[in-house]
Design brief:
The chain has 461 residues and is mostly helical. Helices cover 74% and strands 1% of the residues. The chain is built from 20 helices and two strands. It has a two-stranded antiparallel sheet. Strand 1 and strand 2 form a beta hairpin. It is globular. The two termini are 22 Å apart.
């Protein structure tokens, strides 16, 4: 009975059409992610406020100087590294919904406390603590969404989720533009920007209480009645909206094999190649992604652009953040996902090298917009991709393991970027980034499996 029910749940999920109800569920997940991205991207925008208050410096005296801004970036990704590597397994054990909610609250509390710290060491400490929850949250959002939506809508669903989440980027850029240069009720503006993010996340936690658990996860843990109830509700909404019966479930060979999962399985012959490919990919992809997004105001200042103008340019560039995912809602599943990742990486390399040559407003903004477009297309594509490559029983811990290497690399790449910026300027920074993006193209394009429009259970066998 358990095996039959497991097959039925997976097959029934994948034949569902897009409905207002399913879009509501994806939107609720996305709203939680909105404040996660707000946190990730305020790193760049509050930097100038941290410099102004004399807490951090743009460059470092030594490679691991804690008074340099690179240590603030490292604290963020150090915490996310611990969250993704050490704690991602809890979602596979305790469920997607409960861990997502807990992780969001963890982040909110940690970020709020950080906003009232005054030394580099204490700010870095609470940045690290808050980011542990952030790391757990991001991994579980990917796992949850991949299991909840039908195979024909996974790419667009991830694109839509990233569209919603990336709308936080122009918001935090605008707030930083307005608030970072001033004080609000005696608080430095950068602190107010942080407080707004932590308070908003608590509101979204309240809204997300209506999310159901992943039916695939429930079946994996033998909770068949709960899975059936949730799936029946989704089917009822689909019938009501379409006005007809749903297609017959299409079974996939081997999807009834719901054996217990173990972390060591990611090194089995079936998954070993994928794991190695994703580890290498994650080690280098963040060099390009965060090398620009976390440093863009500092990069502009280093090119001789004043603080106020650099924040204004950054806001204009940030407006493009949701555009890539919005386009992806319509095109994400029309092309094989791995090649979307590969060519987006090449775009980052090319437009980054062009950005380093610009001094005028038009050139800076156009190249910045194009880098942002490629960055965010790469982001929604690879978040979908790595969640698709493993079975439900180990999805969160497998994604957590491979994704943790991206967090690990940024801990050190921030210091390396600071070194290149101090010694070779923006040209040196983007030459370093371009080399990393070429590696992304090779490892994903030539060694990654195809996934687009395939059943999760088929990809994992």
């Amino acid at each position: 009975m358990a095996a039959d029910a497991a097959v039925t749940v997976a097959a029934r999920l994948d034949r569902l059409p897009s409905t207002r109800y399913s879009r509501k569920l994806v939107t609720l997940l996305s709203l939680g992610g909105w404040f996660e991205f707000y946190d990730l991207f305020f790193t760049a925008y509050v930097a100038i406020g941290l410099f102004k208050e004399g807490i951090f410096t743009p460059t470092t005296k030594g490679l691991f100087d804690l008074s340099g801004f690179a240590s603030f970036v490292a604290a963020l990704f150090g915490g996310m590294f611990v969250g993704t590597l050490v704690f991602s397994w809890v979602s596979d054990h305790y469920g997607r919904r409960s861990i997502l909610t807990f992780a969001l609250l963890w982040y909110s509390i940690g970020a709020f406390i950080m906003a009232f710290q005054h030394t580099p060491q204490s700010i870095d400490l609470w940045r690290f603590i808050a980011s542990v929850g952030l790391g757990v949250e991001l991994v579980n959002v990917d796992s949850y969404l991949s299991e909840l939506v039908p195979r024909s809508r996974r790419g667009p669903a991830f694109a839509y989720m990233n569209f919603v989440m990336f709308t936080s980027v122009p918001v935090v850029a605008f707030l930083s533009w307005q608030l970072v240069p001033i004080s609000v009720f005696g608080l430095a503006g950068w602190r107010v920007v942080v407080i707004i993010g932590s308070a908003g996340a608590i509101v979204i936690w309240w809204i997300r209480r209506g999310l159901p658990e992943s039916p695939r996860w429930l079946v994996q843990h033998g909770r068949l009645a709960e899975a059936e109830s949730i799936l029946a509700e989704m089917e009822r909404h689909a019938r009501d909206e379409t006005g007809g019966e749903l297609p017959a479930p299409e079974l996939v060979a081997g999807e009834a094999d719901y054996k217990p999962g173990a972390w060591s399985e990611i090194w089995s012959p079936l998954f070993r190649g994928r794991t190695i490919m994703l580890v290498i990919f994650n080690l280098v992809q963040t060099i390009g992604y965060y090398g620009f997004s976390s440093w863009v105001p500092a990069l502009l200042v280093s090119q001789g652009i004043g603080v106020t103008r650099s924040l204004a340019y950054t806001f204009i560039i940030a407006i493009a953040a949701p555009i890539g995912p919005l386009i992806g809602v319509y095109f994400a599943d029309r092309f094989e996902r791995k090649w979307q990742i590969a060519w987006a990486a090449i775009g980052i390399a090319v437009f980054g090298l062009l950005f380093a040559q610009q001094t005028g407003a038009a050139g800076v903004i156009v190249c910045g917009l194009l880098i942002t477009l490629c960055n965010n297309w790469l982001a929604f594509s690879f978040h979908a991709y790595q969640a698709e490559l493993y079975p439900t029983r180990i999805r969160a811990q497998a994604v957590g393991f491979v994704y943790s290497w991206s967090r690990f690399s940024v801990i050190f790449s921030g210091f390396i970027i600071a070194f290149f910026l101090g010694h070779y300027g923006t040209v040196g920074v983007f030459t370093f980034i371009a080399g990393a993006m070429v590696i992304v193209f090779v490892v994903v394009g030539f060694f990654g499996p195809n996934v687009t429009k395939l059943r999760l259970e088929a990809i994992a066998t």
